[in-house]
User: Which sequence fits this backbone?
């Protein structure tokens, strides 16, 4: 049995990642980290009730992480996989960006990843094994204008991933980052037709990625087959970069 | 309360097992420095495992680097921390 915790599990990408792990093995037990919204998570739980549970998790609060991980350990005595998927963006030019916007994006994307890794570390060290997959973004590499906050936070996630991977490699704990490009999630569905066409014209594959295509990479990086892959950053962008 | 010698043996056994040391518990002196040259030669990853192991096996929590520096010097200093924890319960 493997115990998997996925944050941001109510969103499109989180849902796809959860489904990938649930489909991987009937032995997998998936915990869906949810905060405020949980309607999609509840549907998944209804479908896989025996091995899929929701857990309240405000990723920006270390105490919330502590409580969530304690709940999981009380049930299973282990955490095998952590997928730090929760994130958000709030774009704007640096010159006029309110300090609160900067802080909020860094806290949700970067600080939260740190809190999550720290929360599961004692368990993974004790188990002498574990998999952490951090969802970064292509913005970490492209650093587009208007995303100083998001790009910096996601680049921080990549650097944190590489550093932590070195710290715990000897303990069979792998830490990797994914950098998705344009993926068919809520962000994309908010675009109008013209915006979609313009975005797709910049993608060599001329289409947006599917959440399932990102989820497949997450599942692979968390698998036994990926045991020697750590500190890596995998971009999933249809060839943009 | 557990005899100090027996406690130190348990600590050494935990270290050998958790850190996969290439020495036996009997070869670890009570006052042998755990880190640095001339000592057991542990590194930061070993320290991380020790912190987790002491919490799991003895309920000793090491909350910050200053406490780690104080407690993780030798088997004797670790034993002192465990005994303080036991006395406080």
Assistant:
């Amino acid at each position: 049995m493997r115990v998997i915790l996925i944050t941001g599990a109510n969103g499109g990408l989180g849902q796809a990642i959860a489904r990938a792990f649930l489909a991987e093995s009937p032995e997998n037990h998936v915990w869906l980290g949810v905060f405020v919204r949980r309607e999609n998570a509840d549907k998944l739980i209804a479908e896989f009730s025996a091995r899929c549970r929701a857990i309240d998790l405000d990723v920006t609060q270390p105490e919330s992480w502590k409580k969530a991980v304690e709940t999981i350990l009380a049930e299973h005595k282990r955490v095998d996989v952590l997928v730090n998927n929760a994130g958000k963006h709030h774009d704007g030019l640096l010159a006029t960006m309110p300090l609160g916007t900067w802080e909020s994006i860094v806290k949700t994307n970067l600080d939260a990843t740190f809190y999550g890794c720290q929360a599961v570390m004692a368990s993974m060290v004790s188990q002498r094994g574990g998999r952490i997959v951090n969802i970064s973004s292509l913005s970490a590499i492209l650093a587009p204008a208007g995303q100083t906050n998001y790009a910096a936070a996601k680049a921080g996630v990549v650097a944190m991933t590489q550093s932590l991977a070195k710290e715990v490699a000897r303990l069979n704990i792998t830490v990797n980052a994914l950098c998705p490009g344009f993926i068919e999630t809520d962000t994309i569905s908010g675009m109008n037709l013209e915006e979609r066409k313009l975005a797709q014209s910049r993608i060599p594959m001329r289409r947006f990625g599917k959440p399932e295509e990102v989820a497949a990479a997450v599942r692979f990086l968390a698998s036994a087959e990926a045991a020697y892959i750590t500190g890596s950053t995998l971009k999933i962008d249809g060839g943009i970069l | 309360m557990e005899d100090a010698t027996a406690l130190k043996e348990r600590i050494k056994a935990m270290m050998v097992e958790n850190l996969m040391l290439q020495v036996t518990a009997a070869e670890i002196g009570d006052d042998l420095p755990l880190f640095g040259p001339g000592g057991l030669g542990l590194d930061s990853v070993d320290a991380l495992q020790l912190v987790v192991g002491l919490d799991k096996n003895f309920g000793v929590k090491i909350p910050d680097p200053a406490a780690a520096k104080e407690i993780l010097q030798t088997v004797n200093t670790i034993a002192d921390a465990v005994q303080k924890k036991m006395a406080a319960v």
Notes: The interface with chain B takes residues 121-122, 125-126, 167-168, 170-171 of chain A (CB under 8 Å). The longest helix of chain A spans residues 99-127. The mean pLDDT of chain A is 96.
